[in-house]
Amino acid sequence: MKFSVCSSARVTEGVLERDRLPLFCICAGMLVFFTQVTVLFPVLPLYLSQRWANAPVGLVVGAMAAGLLFFRPGIGWLLDHWGRKAVLWVGLGIMLGILPLYLWSSDPTWLMGVRVAHGISQAAFATASQTMLVDLVGRDRRTAMLGYLAMSNTIGFSLGPLLGSWAFAQMGFVGVVGFMGGLTLLGFFLTLPLPWLWAVRSAQSAEPPHPFPWDVVLRFPVRDATLVFFITSFLHGGVVTFLPLFVPNSALFYSLNALVAVGVRFALGRWGDRISQRWITTLAILSSSTALVGLAIAPQFLASWSILYGLGFGAMFPVLSAMVSLSAPGAARGRVYSVFLAGFDGGMTLGGAGVEPLVQVIPLSRLFLLLGCTGCLVSGYAFRQFAKPT
Known about the structure:
- This protein is mainly alpha-helical.
- It has a single domain (21-200, 213-385), classed as MFS general substrate transporter like domains (Growth Hormone, Chain: A, Up-down Bundle), CATH 1.20.1250.20.
- The protein has helices at 21-38, 44-51, 57-82, 84-104, 108-136, 142-191, 214-217, 222-246, 250-271, 277-297, 302-327, 333-354, 356-359, 364-385; strands at 2-6, 10-12, 15-17, 196-200.
- It is globular.
- It starts with a strand and ends in a 5-residue tail after the last helix.
């Protein structure tokens, strides 16, 4: 399997030679993009409650994940046929186009459609970034570099809520949307040095006989990594959507747990290849789930629970992502990756919109307790499944 590149750097067998600038640009672009995404975390639920008293907060917030879920497979096809950089620009272009629509929404239903488009933008940018990084890095460094990419993502998660809360307090929702537009333009600037990269079939590496690589997706470890990612993202979707309605300083939780996750992912970048993926995954799920139980029982210790949550959720993605990348053939990597990341999309959708009916009948403290206990059970499944050889 080889890759075609229109760039001064040369890529052979998926390893970038000589030029490290694209790796820096991918990580910096991910940081900026996810800062822009998470600016709305503490802002949108409050904005909805202020503007429309009975707005379905879970449905509106979760609509973004629905856009991710339904369009991610198509994004994977585009990655394998259009190339990585073209899809990056599609994601950024959609984002610039929809930002004014946040301000022009006349009712929550309209805003749900805007959120779906926001999800398509994130699906394009994030999937293309991760796929391009895997293309450019050798197998022996893949877990490490995915750890660094996830660290960049997490720094964005740390900065976004704080910046969003500040912008909302100082300038209102119009200021928040304008700030998001500036970050999107900066992200476009960072993508300019990236190579034009796309998969090409060679005589030794033909496309699989079926149009979609189900033989890879439906067997271990891609199947199990996607399932675990789906469930843990379901828990995370509940936290992102309903925490601002449960505690008054939710931005502290988002930013502190993201800062902790930065440290975890930096450590995985340096030493992740030396530690058992089984143990990392199991302890990560257990840690984040215990934090949700603690948050439900003693929310006054918000800082402690956010640190524990960050330790767990921060370790999860780079390890699961590395498992999938090592099992995905190069010619179908975009499509396999799109299915794996659809696990995140589906989980976030159900964690927001799907949990909305429960919020109407049980207190939020019991909701977080239920989510935490579910995660503890999943950690046992992960411990058993990931004992298998990859």
